[in-house]
Amino acid sequence: MDEAERGADVERWCDDMLRLQLASTLLRLSVWQEAHTEPAHGRTSTASNFNRFQQQIKTDFAKHHQVQHYANVLGMSGKSLGRLCLATTGMSAKSWITQRLCLEAKRLLAHTSLSVQSIGNELGYDDASNFVKFFRREAGLTPLAFRRDHVGAG
């Protein structure tokens, strides 16, 4: 492949990336506009439903990590709950649940002397290795490394 062909490939790739970025931006603007142009009672309903979701997470996050559980409790479909979260926070419902779970794990690691296994059990993980994998994926380090770096912090 000569220099001109490589240049053309790079130019096509850049055009494709710009097209995807524009589509993404337009989609986000569309979601934003839809959320901000609802009738007043729609916004109240959205805020009320999201507040109910947050309250349910406070109650159930340690035992229930699945979006469908919260959707069932709130009387809506998983897709509806996902749209509600995306419109309200810009995050998926699963990400919102995961973020809350990780926050509690960090709090327990930094401010208690509970073992990693006990913390995992308290947060609904029957196997400590699954909790460690979850925590490493979300926090970027193992629970013990987090504890070492954050004991007494905050």
Plain-language structure description:
By secondary structure, the protein is mainly α. The protein folds into two domains: 89 residues, no CATH class; 53 residues, Homeodomain-like (Arc Repressor Mutant, subunit A), CATH 1.10.10.60. 79% of the residues lie in helices and 0% in strands. The protein contains eight helices and no strands. α5 crosses α8 and α6 crosses α7. The protein is flat, with a radius of gyration of 21 Å. About 3% of the residues have low confidence.
Keywords:
single chain, 154 residues, Arc Repressor Mutant, subunit A, 2 domains
Query: Helical amount among residues, as a percent range?
Result: over 70%
Global mean pLDDT = 85
Largest sheet: number of strands, sense, barrel closure: none
Percent strand equals under 5%
- Report low-confidence residues grouped into runs of 5 or more: 38-42
Global outline:
flat
Report the order of strands and helices: HHHHHHHH
Helix vs. strand class: mainly alpha
Distance between the termini: 57 Å
Rg of Cα set: 21 Å
How many strands appear in the DSSP assignment? Answer: 0
Write the layout of secondary structure elements.
Blueprint: H1 3-36, H2 40-60, H3 67-74, H4 78-89, H5 93-111, H6 116-122, H7 128-139, H8 143-150
